[in-house]
Design goal:
This protein is α/β, with parallel strands linked by helices. The protein has a domain of 198 residues: P-loop containing nucleotide triphosphate hydrolases (Rossmann fold), CATH 3.40.50. Helix content is 29%, strand content 23%. The strands form two sheets. An eight-stranded mixed β-sheet has the order 6-7-8-3-9-10-12-11. Strands 2-1-4-5 form a four-stranded antiparallel β-sheet. A hairpin with a 5-residue loop joins strand 11 and strand 12. It is globular, with a radius of gyration of 21 Å. The N terminus is likely disordered.
Length: 333
C-alpha cells in the first residue's frame, strides 16, 4: 500500500469505550480505543472473534446508539465536509439519521441478512436514493442501475429487477456495496465483507472496494480477522485483543516487524510459503465479565514475566507512528 494520505483527520476516536448491559451487569466490549483516520485512508481493525473490532466499527456508525442497554463513552471527533468538527457520540435523532448513509455507510459481512428478500435489488437501492438523495422515482431507478454497473454486476438493468435469492453470494455482496454507495459516503465501514465468500470472490470484492475508494476518495475502516487479506488493503492497522488495542501502526511495519506477542501469534497462524505449518494460539481470551486486572494476553503469552501479571499495561510508543501494549515489545521476534 502507498503511505497514508497526509491530510487532516476525518475521524478521531479518543478513548472510545462501549459496554452492554447483561444479566450480571455491564460488560465492557471495547475499552479506551483511540485512533485517527484521514480522508482516502484505510484503517484495518484485526483480531480474533470477540476481540471488539466489529463493536468498535459499529460504534463509529452509531449503530448501537438507540439500542437499550448500551453505553458508549469517550469521543468520536468527526470533520464535516465544510471542515466543522462534531462529536458523533453527541448526535441524536434527526442529526444522527442524517449522518448514516450520507456520511458514513456500512457493508455488512452477511449480504443475505442485509438485503430484504421481499423487494428487488433495484427497488431497495432506489428507496435508499429517494431517502438520502431526494431523487424522484425515475431518477432513483436509473441511478440504481448505474450503481449496480459501478460495482461490476453484469447486465445491471436486468439484475435490478431480481430478488436477493436470485443472485450468487458474490453478486449479493456487490449489491450491498452498491446500496452503501447510494448516499455517496465519506467513510465506508466494511465489516468482514468477504467472510462468506470463496477465495476468488474475496479477491474480487477487495479489488472492487479499493477501486471505488480510489475513485471516490472515501476513507475506509476494514474489519477482518485475516491478516493476509489485510496486508493488501490497509494503510494502517489496529490489532485488538479482549476489547483493547494492543498494537497499532503502519500496515507494512506491523505485519513485517510486529511489536506485540499477540500480533506475532496471529501472523504465525498463517500458512507459510516455505511449508512451515501454521501454529495456533494456546488458551482462550479472558472472560469479558471479569477481565484480568493485568495484561489480558499474559496467560497465553510466551514472553510473559511476573510484571505482566502485576497490573494493567499501557500503550507504549514503539517507534515512529507505532504503539504496543507490551512490556517486552522490543523482544518480540
Amino acid at each position: 500500500m502507498n503511505p497514508s494520505p497526509a491530510s487532516a483527520a476525518l475521524l478521531e476516536a479518543d478513548r472510545l469505550s462501549v459496554a452492554f448491559l447483561g444479566a450480571k451487569g455491564w460488560i465492557t466490549a471495547v475499552e479506551d480505543v483511540s485512533f485517527s483516520l484521514a480522508p482516502g485512508e484505510t484503517l484495518a481493525l484485526v483480531g480474533e472473534s470477540g476481540s471488539g473490532k466489529s463493536v468498535t466499527a459499529m460504534a463509529v456508525a452509531r449503530l448501537h446508539a438507540e439500542a437499550p442497554g448500551t453505553r458508549s463513552t469517550g469521543k468520536l471527533h468527526w470533520r464535516d465536509a465544510d471542515g466543522a468538527p462534531r462529536d458523533l457520540l453527541a448526535l441524536k435523532g434527526a442529526a444522527l439519521r442524517r449522518l448514516r448513509g450520507r456520511e458514513i455507510a456500512v457493508v455488512f459481512q452477511d449480504p443475505g441478512s442485509a438485503l430484504d428478500p421481499l423487494f428487488t435489488i433495484g427497488d431497495q437501492i432506489a428507496e435508499t436514493l429517494r431517502h438520502l438523495r431526494a431523487m424522484n422515482g425515475r431518477q432513483a431507478a436509473a441511478r440504481a442501475v448505474e450503481l449496480l454497473g459501478l460495482v461490476g454486476i453484469p447486465d445491471p438493468a436486468r439484475r435490478a429487477g431480481e430478488y436477493p435469492h436470485q443472485l450468487s453470494g458474490g453478486m449479493r455482496q456487490r449489491a450491498v456495496i452498491a446500496l452503501a454507495l447510494a448516499g455517496e459516503p465519506r467513510l465506508l465501514i466494511a465489516d468482514e465483507p468477504t467472510t462468506a465468500l470463496d477465495v476468488t470472490i474475496q479477491a474480487q470484492i477487495v479489488d472492487l472496494l479499493q477501486g471505488l475508494q480510489a475513485e471516490q476518495g472515501m476513507a475506509m475502516i476494514f474489519v477482518s480477522h485475516d491478516l493476509g487479506l489485510v496486508a493488501g488493503v490497509a494503510h494502517r492497522i489496529c490489532v485488538l485483543y479482549a476489547g483493547q488495542i494492543v498494537e497499532q501502526g503502519p500496515a507494512g511495519e506491523v505485519l513485517s516487524r510486529p511489536r506485540h506477542p499477540y500480533t506475532r501469534a496471529l501472523l504465525d497462524c498463517i500458512p507459510s510459503l516455505e511449508g512451515a505449518p501454521p501454529r495456533g494460539i494456546p488458551g482462550l481470551m479472558p472472560n469479558p465479565l471479569a477481565p484480568p486486572p493485568h495484561c489480558r494476553f499474559a496467560d497465553r503469552c510466551a514472553l510473559a514475566i511476573a510484571p505482566c501479571h502485576a497490573g494493567p499495561v499501557p500503550l507504549f510508543e514503539a517507534g515512529e507512528g507505532r504503539r504496543s501494549r507490551c512490556l517486552r515489545w522490543e523482544e518480540v521476534p
